[in-house]
Amino acid sequence: MFQKGIVSVELARAVSLETMQLRSAGPVEVVMMHVTVPPGESIDWHYHPGPVIVMVHTGTLTRVLPDGEVRTSVAGEAFVEAPGREWAHQGHNRGSEPLEMYAAFLLPHGQPLSIAI
C-alpha cells in the first residue's frame, strides 16, 4: 500500500453501533486527542461546540446525559457526541483499569475542545 520508507501505524479501531451523519456549515478544525482516565476518576459536566467521534480503546466509559440516561461503551466501541449544550454529559471510569479513548474533535474554527458547565 505504501512506498518504501513510509510508516503507517493504526492507533485504534472501533465499531459504531449508531448511524453517523456529520455536516459542516463552515471551516472545521480537526483535533485528535488520546485521553486517559484513571480508575475511579470522572470528567465533569461539559459539552462540545462541534461533534466528537470517540473510540474506546481500553476500559469502560460510563456517560451520564442531562436527562439522567446512562450509556456505557466498552473497548472496541465508537460513538459520536453531538454538539451543543443540550448534549452536555459527564464521563466516568468506574472500572479497575485505565480508560483510554481516542477522540476526533470536529470544531467550528476557533472554538475550544469543550465547554464546562
Can you characterise this structure?
By secondary structure, the chain is an all-beta fold. The chain has one domain: Jelly Rolls. It is built from no helices and 10 strands. The protein has strands at residues 15-16, 28-37, 42-47, 52-58, 60-64, 70-74, 77-81, 89-92, 99-108, 115-116. The strands form 2 sheets. A 5-stranded mixed sheet has the order 1-7-4-9-2, with no helix packed on it. It has a 5-stranded antiparallel sheet with strand order 6-5-8-3-10, with no helix packed on it. InterPro entries: Cupin_2, RmlC-like_jellyroll, RmlC_Cupin_sf. Pfam families: Cupin_2 (PF07883). This is Cupin domain-containing protein. It comes from Kibdelosporangium aridum.
Number of domains: 1
Number of strands: 10
Low-confidence stretches: none
Report strand %: over 45%
- Our count of helices gives 0
Output the strand order for the largest sheet.
1-7-4-9-2
Q: What order do the helices and strands follow?
A: EEEEEEEEEE
* Distance linking N and C termini: 46 Å
Task: Fill in the CATH topology.
Answer: Jelly Rolls
Structural class: mainly beta
Q: In the CATH hierarchy, what is the architecture at level 2?
A: Sandwich
Q: Quick one: biggest sheet?
A: 5 strands, mixed
- The radius of gyration over CA amounts to 15 Å
Organism: Kibdelosporangium aridum
InterPro entries: Cupin_2 (IPR013096), RmlC-like_jellyroll (IPR014710), RmlC_Cupin_sf (IPR011051)
Protein name: Cupin domain-containing protein
Domain Cupin type-2: 34-103
